[in-house]
């Protein structure tokens, strides 16, 4: 008798827990504020082992250099729609790694695939010298300020695509035909 009571008492709580879990799952509505993931893929191409991604700045086609070493996104004056003729061009530093040049701030919309971040603060810099040194045209450096807006970046070198994941809360919409 002892054994069957012990066995029964172990079986009943498990069944009760399963029934309770199913009931709670059925009755608890999902909150509209709950995050839902948005995943998308953008193609890239390589130039001198640097990853270039096509996107948009202020609704116009732009080529971004994926720059994980830059804290800020940097756009050319043309891409940002800023008159910045007096800016000293981006040049290599004489001490250490990196580049330096004059900048001004601007607010732009940035789009990658279906994701659009409207009214983003970027630095505007003359990228002419960088374009000459790299042998290709780049409109902007995609920096950590935007890269961190996403949950993950997965670079597939074989397929030449980047899988990007974000939440709908992190996804902004903007009118790409107008400046912010």
Detailed description of the structure:
The N and C termini lie far apart (78 Å). It is globular and about 45 Å long. By secondary structure, it is of the alpha+beta class. The protein is built from four helices and eleven strands; from the N terminus they run αββββαββββαβαββ. It folds into two domains: 1-30; 37-167, Beta Barrel (Cathepsin D, subunit A, domain 1). Helices cover 23% and strands 38% of the residues.
From the structure above, extract its key features.
180 residues, six-stranded mixed β-barrel, alpha+beta, 11 strands, disordered C terminus, 2 domains
Q: CATH superfamily name of the largest domain?
A: Acid Proteases
Low-confidence stretches: 1-31, 176-180
Mean pLDDT: 77
Count of folded domains: 2
Helix percentage range: 10-25%
N-to-C SSE string, H for helix and E for strand: HEEEEHEEEEHEHEE
CATH architecture of the largest domain: Beta Barrel
- Our measurement of the CA-to-CA distance between the termini, rounded to an integer number of angstroms, reads 78 Å
Structural shape:
globular
The Rg value, from CA coordinates, equals: 25 Å
Sheet with most strands:
6 strands, mixed, barrel
Backbone structural class: alpha+beta
CATH topology label of the largest domain: Cathepsin D, subunit A, domain 1
Give a quick rundown of the structure:
The protein has 180 residues and is of the alpha+beta class.
């Amino acid at each position: 008798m002892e054994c069957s009571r012990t066995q029964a008492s172990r079986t009943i709580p498990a069944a009760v827990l399963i029934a309770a879990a199913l009931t709670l799952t059925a009755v608890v509505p999902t909150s509209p504020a709950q995050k839902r993931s948005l995943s998308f893929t953008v193609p890239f191409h390589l130039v001198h082992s640097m990853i270039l991604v096509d996107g948009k700045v202020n609704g116009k086609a732009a080529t971004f250099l994926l720059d994980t070493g830059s804290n800020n996104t940097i756009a050319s004056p043309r891409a940002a729609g800023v008159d910045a003729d007096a800016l000293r061009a981006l040049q290599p530093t004489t001490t250490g790694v990196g580049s330096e040049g004059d900048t001004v701030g601007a607010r732009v919309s940035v789009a990658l695939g279906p994701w659009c971040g409207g009214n983003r603060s970027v630095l505007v810099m003359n990228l002419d010298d960088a374009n000459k040194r790299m042998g290709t045209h780049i409109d902007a450096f995609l920096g950590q300020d935007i890269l961190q807006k996403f949950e993950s970046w997965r670079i597939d070198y074989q397929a030449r695509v980047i899988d990007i994941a974000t939440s709908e809360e992190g996804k902004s919409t903007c009118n790409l035909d107008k400046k912010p």
